[in-house]
Design a protein that fits this description.
The chain has 116 residues and is mostly beta strands. The chain contains no helices and 12 strands. The protein starts with a strand and ends with a strand. The relative contact order is 0.33.
Length: 116
Amino acid sequence: MPGLLLHFGASMMCAHPPGLVTVPAPVQQRVLVGANPVLTSADTFLVAGCSFPAASAGAPPCTGVVWLQTSARVFVGGLPVLLQPTPTGTAPAMGVGTPPPNPPLVLSVQPRVQGM
């Protein structure tokens, strides 16, 4: 399924705002879109500030994101790049933690480079 290439610096939130999804440091730094490194399947996503309602009852909040939508044709350093699918696509990723896994919300991503 085609989608936009995800990059370091894209704005993302977990499914329980205002949880901010970040990539501490991209694994690769050579291939860029704009001035930002392209994210690959080796990158780690962390969540900070998840407001999962059950957190007050002792259930832990979201801690990370596992990205499911990778490219089948575009690779960087032998690793598939991550894609943000078009709005009609399936969920690109799932949250990690005790809350029910919900896809993260990608708020902004570069609009020019697509992959399959």
